[in-house]
Write the C-alpha cells for this entry.
Amino acid sequence: MPSRRHAIADDLRQQIRTGHFKAGERLPSEAQLATRYTVSTPTLRSALALLQGEGLVEKIHGSGNYVRRPLRRFTYVGGVGASAIPPLRATVRTTNLEAHGDLPALLNVPPLSPLTELLYVTHDGKAPHSLARIYVPRDLAPADCPSPEQMRASLADLHPPLSEVQERLGARLPTQEESTALRISASLPVLSLTRVATNTAGRVVEAAFIVLPGDRADALFTTRLKPDEGTPTE
C-alpha cells in the first residue's frame, strides 16, 4: 500500500497529466492541499517534493507551486559552452573582489589578487536554465557586462591566444542558493562543471563554475582523431 505522500503525488500527477492543472498554472496553496488530503503540511510538502524532483512542479519562493511547462533539453559542448535554439536570455552581474578560497589555486595567482566575478543566470523563456560564475584577472575583465557569447568571443580573441581549456564534470545535489536561483528541488541532481582556460604564455585567464539542472541539460565532449592513426589530434 503506497504511503500518503506517494498517494498524494500520484493523484496530483494524474491531475496534471489529464490537464486538470495546466502548464504554468499555480496549484492550490500548501495549506489548502493539506486540508484537502487531510494530512500535515510536512507530509504535503514531501509529496510535492516528489513532483518537483520529477520536474512536473516548480516552487517559486514567495509565490507558490506551479505546474512546470515542458522542458527543452540543451547541450553543453565541451570547450565552447551551452548551445541553445532558440537562444537563451542571460542576465549578468559583475563584482570586483579578491582571490580567496580555491580561486588562487585555480587561477594560479597569489591570494587576495584582484579579480572580477561575472555571475550569469540564463533563462529559457521565463524559466531559469543555468547558473555560471566566471572569474577573470582584473586586468582582463571586460569594461561592460558581456553576454555569454561575447565573453567566449573575447577569450577567443585574446593575445596571446588560448592554448588549453580544461573541464571537470561531476554530478551533485544543488546548494540552497542554486536551488532557489534555478527554481529546482534540492533533491534534483545538477551537472557541475569547472572550466579553466589557459593562454599560450601559461597564464590562466578564466576559471568558471557552471551549474546545469540534470532534468534539462546534457554535456557533450568530442575527441577528434587524426585520419588513419586512431590518436587524438592536438
About this structure: The mean pLDDT is 87. The radius of gyration is 21 Å. The longest strand covers residues 114-124.
